[in-house]
Amino acid sequence: MKVLLLNGSPRPNMCTYTALKVISDRLNELGIETEIFNVGAKAISGCIGCGSCRTTGECFVDDAVNEFVAKMAEADGLIVGSPVYYASASGQISAFLDRAFFSGSSKMQGKPGAAIVSCRRGGASAAFDQLNKYFSISNMPIVTSNYWNQVHGNNPEEVLQDEEGIQTMTILADNMAWLLKCIEAGKAKGVELPVRPDKIKTNFIR
Question: Which ranges of the chain have pLDDT less than 50?
Fold first, then answer.
């Protein structure tokens, strides 16, 4: 089993990475393989609504989004991390996830997902809610902890001093590992994902 951890910070080794590394290390202790995928500081185009992915299965903009979606096809779970900017997730991760989920949500259905955010002081809950919406629209079980998944600090050293935040990350990893093992045990007993009907789409018109 493998969990892909997506780091939505343009600074790859700072606070968000620190929280994701705590989760990754704990998952490894529990026998779960992990990979941290950094969005990085390169410009990430937003979705342009061209619809080509409906035909090709890939985003028209050939960048790290397609690489990530290909990795998600092989992964069993996803954890998305972002710093908090203006009480929201980073612009990079928002653009990245818009395209990744629009073009590749079929690779993520049924796989547990979780969001974590890092902030200096405020805005964590709003950013956390924003990220969870990607999972909740994509038939993904959302993994929780004993508090909202956030850490506080202005640098990695301060994040590691956030004892409650670090505990939250560790329990999140425990719960992710538990759910993945439950899903694996269910499959061994013949419990498969529900059959998905074709999507009904309606517009709010008179």
Answer: none
Q: Sort residue 157 into left (φ over 0), alpha (ψ -120 to 50) or beta.
A: alpha
CA distances from 46 to 43, 65, 78, 92, 132 (A): 10, 11, 21, 9, 19
Residue 72 phi, psi dihedral angles, 5° rounding: -65, -25
Burial grade of 205 (CB within 10 A; 0-12, 13-18, 19 or more): exposed
Residue 45, exposed/middle/buried by CB under 10 A (0-12, 13-18, 19+)?
middle
- In 3D space, the residue among 112, 123, 96, 67 whose CA is nearest the CA of residue 8 turns out to be 96
**Residue pLDDT, tens place only, 38-72:** 998 888 999 999 999 999 989 999 899 999 999 99
The separation between the first and the last C-alpha atoms of the chain, rounded to the nearest angstrom, is: 48
C-alpha–C-alpha distance, residues 25 and 19, integer Å? 10
- The first and second tokens of residue 136, run together, are 């909740």
Query: How would you classify the pairing of strands 88-89 and 77-85?
Result: antiparallel
Measured between alpha carbons, how far is 80 from 41 in angstroms, rounded to an integer? 16
